[in-house]
Amino acid sequence: IDGKDYPFPFYSRADWNTDPSTDVRPLITLTPYVVIHHTYEPPACNDTAQCEAAMKSMQDYHKSLDWGDIGYNFCVGSEGGAYEGRGWEVVGIHAGKANSISIGICLIGDWREQLPPVQQLETTKALIEEGVKRGFISSDYKLIGHRQALPTECPGTALFFPRGGWGQFVPQMRYPPPLKKTHK
After folding, report:
1. Model confidence, pTM
2. CA atoms of 82 and 65, how far apart (whole Å)
3. Per-residue model confidence (pLDDT) at position 85
4. Which domain CATH number covers 11?
5. Which of 2, 95, 10 is nearest to 52 (CA)?
6. 98-155: pLDDT as tens digits
7. Alpha-carbon distance 147 to 36, whole Å?
8. The domain containing residue 43 runs over which residues?
9. Residue 169: inside a domain, yes or no?
10. Which of 108, 110, 127, 162 has the maximal Cβ count within 10 Å?
11. In which family does this protein belong, per the annotation (predicted)?
12. Distances (CA, A) of 54 to 100, 130, 140
């Protein structure tokens, strides 16, 4: 992905010096779900160097679990940068049975007790809008927290979900049903 044409700071896999992925299963498009996560560890990153180090740390950990790559499709740092994980067209490993029908976006940091910085939230919303605009996310997508796909406290109590609008958040949904797969 070329990050130059995004309306926010965007860092491709090459920018954060990723290892090659060994898991590149194609993701369905138009993806009907967006799943929001937080990292807990690594902690919030406040500049590009810290966020790139966090991405590399997550990739190394996820690969140690035999996931083949970082589990998330994208991550967003506290400084407002978006970081490509698996990208728009590769199945992530982040939400159990919802992996093959969702884009996983992780807000780097522990958001159990405090809200992420405004610029991190705004970039996350803008990234989702870009996914819709570019034809990767369905315009009628459902926004859920990781805890709605699997039993976990993720994305943190404070982040789940801040007042002030998250568009298509579906608070009552649990464990998305499997969908018939279609490809672009």
Report:
1. 0.87
2. 24
3. 97
4. 3.40.80.10
5. 10
6. 889 899 999 999 888 888 999 999 999 999 999 999 999 999 998 887 777 777 676 7
7. 9
8. 3-148
9. no
10. 108
11. Belongs to the N-acetylmuramoyl-L-alanine amidase 2 family.
12. 25, 23, 32
